[in-house]
Amino acid sequence: MSHRIFAARRILTMNPSQPEATHIAVRDGRILGVGSLETLSDLGDFELDERFADKVILPGFVEGHSHALEGVLWEYPYAGFFPRQDPDGHTWPGLTDIAALQHHLGEQVAKLPADSPLIAWGFDPIYFPQRRLDRDDLDAVDAERPIVVIHANLHMMTVNGAMLRFAGLESQAGIEGVRTFDDGRPNGELREMAAMFAIFDILDLDLFDRGSEEATLERYARIGQRHGVTTLTDLYNPLSETGVESMQRTCNRDDVPMRLAPAMSALTYTPEDGIERVLGCRDKGSDKLHFGLVKLMTDGSIQGYTARLKWPGYHDGSPNGMWNAEPERLTEIVHRYHQAGLQLHIHTNGDEAVELMLDAIESALELWPRADHRHTLQHCQIIDHAQLKRAARLGVCLNMFANHLYYWGDIHRSRTLGFERCQRLEPLASADRLGIPIAAHCDAPVTPLAPLFTAWCAIARQTASGDVLGPLEALSVERALRLITLDAAYTLKLDDCVGSLEVGKFADMAVLDEDPHDVPLERLASIGVAATVVGGHVFSNA
């Protein structure tokens, strides 16, 4: 049987037994062999494909924490502080003051039918220290039309007076997360899932369920393809019946360049219903669609002041953050899903949330010992060294939000965390020294989906202003590349089939214009991705 052999200038395999090669043989969507042309010559008849002869091939990048919401939100106007490129290659400018935001929203309003709400996303109030965006600012854009501005961290939003009235929140200031002016009136800022749900409910809009729609998934895959990503996650998916059917239809098509691992949002269901739903999806998976992951939200975001921090709390004295459910309920959920044999991916931004979840995992393991559970703490931005040692002892994986260093490092240094805690922001090197399975992620759409940038963040640890935070936590280029390939695959329990270029694994590859080892560090993130290969199918980025 004939097969295809791809030639390359260099192949970085992430296989410790054979780290480099020049040729890779592919048959039936899988890797038949990796080595030199001479060592592959005994595999039988082949077609030599030299289109990548001057390129560098890596395993297809694995994004261990992102959201298909990245494919949804581009249907709405972007309103963030940093410039950002959309799926069509258009760059939206950054909005660096509230007046610019209002002008931008006004332009978008003019494009809408009279009865349509305006929904924008990406706004980050932490970059506007003079004052918070409020309902009055948005009423100045349009006082009659409901306006919703979703914050970059996805844990908060600001709405105008019309939206508050429409959602029945004008007189509901007692609800946790509904912020108020000094006189007690809701000021338009809504924090965390319970408060935001009222808005989504009245608009009949489930953004996370929309992440399973065919057009959304196609867009999501296209964004990933441009950056060499072959395995994507959707780490907060309701797994609705229609959503699962849509994922099956879309992901299993050869022309959709991604494998997808959705994680069911645990707080959407009772543990009984959630466990039944995840287990019921397991036989609906395929080579390109992997079910079985569960996502649990504990606290919020540090830059949104909704993360839960241990003493002394926020550096600038702001009150501690919020739990998305009572700590006792969060602990019970960990116990129930652990007992059911499922893998948990747990959002823990603050170190108090880390502590609660380590306690929960430890007690679950005492009650129901499980080998190789791979429960993964996601973000764990300021996990301390005692907690790292506990995580190592408990067999917990840590997937750290390395992009956070660039986008919010300056804010954390000056306002939320202070100098010392910022030295262990995303402590990847310390975790690696302890032998903890680690990965790094972008949390798209919170930050852009671009694994080489994520790797650069883990190496350079540079903030947007150019400061370096925690230089002793920096990784080497080689180690950082593993974070976005084999290590990320390990946290998803997919390292047996993706993440490295080895015989029997899926033929998933990122084809780069340059070798990440050879370029200056400041150019690592901008290396061109010439093509992405998924199951042997080549998707050119030209």
TrEMBL record:
Gene3D superfamilies: 3.10.310.70, Metal-dependent hydrolases, Urease, subunit C, domain 1. Pfam families: Amidohydro_3. CDD domains: YtcJ_like. SUPFAM superfamilies: Composite domain of metallo-dependent hydrolases, Metallo-dependent hydrolases. Keywords: Hydrolase. Residues 54-538 form the Amidohydrolase domain. InterPro entries: Amidohydro_3, Metal-dep_hydrolase_composite, Metal_Hydrolase, YtcJ-like. It comes from the Bacteria. GO terms for molecular function: hydrolase activity, acting on carbon-nitrogen (but not peptide) bonds. PANTHER family: IMIDAZOLONEPROPIONASE, PROTEIN LONG AFTER FAR-RED 3. This is Amidohydrolase.
